[in-house]
Amino acid sequence: MAEKIRLNKFISDSGVCSRREADKYIEQGHVFVNGKRAAIGTMVSARDKVLLNGNPIEAKDGTDFVFLAFNKPVGIISTTEVGVKDSIIDYIGYHERIFPIGRLDKESQGLIFLTNNGDIVNKILRAGNKHEKEYLVTVNKPVTDDFVLKMGNGVPILGEITKKCKVVKESVYSFRITLIQGLNRQIRRMCEHFDYDVVKLERVRIMNISLKGIPVGEWRQLQPEEMEQIMAAIANSSSTVETKPKSQESRLKAPETRAKTSGHRAPAVGTTKKPDRSANPNPKSRDLRSNSSSSSAKKGGAPKNVKPSTSSFGNRKSKR
Questions:
Q1: Predicted confidence (pLDDT) at residue 114 exceeds the cutoff of 70
Q2: First to last CA, the chain
Q3: Of 109, 232, 251, 279, which has the fewest Cβ atoms less than 10 A away?
């Protein structure tokens, strides 16, 4: 890294926390650069010595990043907030700090990415970058041609008209919809506008990654070639977040662990020993996969209990 970047991005790139959290640590005096207390907006390079809570910070690059594809079951909440029952972070139990890219409602299931790369999040989420997310939706009454046409042309929700999107009838009671937006409960609100209720909502694809081979409740590392495709797709994407009231994009400027201002302490970087995850299976995964299999069986049968694939990306292994 020859040129200088903002300190909060440098810290975020290390995988320790998001940019917003980094700014909190800087404001609270936890961060020092070359022996001096850092200020918001400080610029640093690879030659600078950055300490967070007395521990050295080094920005990661290349394959140092964690990037997981998770098939979220119904009932799991897409939050990093500490103490929330059935949170996605507690469910997965990964040995490094990761956070979800975007959200899936508690009542919804399907594909969601998790990473420790704070910079990549907005590039994937921002509607202006036009990265696709595909959903299979089951509703409570027959899908008509008129409904498909109107859903695809834009629907008034949350004080705005949704962007035009591809909608294809799948069966009498189901359809596929491909979005580039991420408004709060967008598909459910769009259906409600036409007096349809969503019975089941499953995200089946994000960009070039599909759910194929990932049983409900399991996750896998992305393969190197998959990461290359994603990085190429976001190479010219902006990380600037559009400020739209009540939209998911404006709320997800950087997914982070919410903490109360009082007692907010910087992490002890480099002091936590990584556990042997193979000796620490997650029982929630087995239970919830079992509970979710019945809903999966309704569309072509439940996925087989296949061990998630691993990759050389980051040289990490997934767990059962």
A1: yes
A2: 37
A3: 279
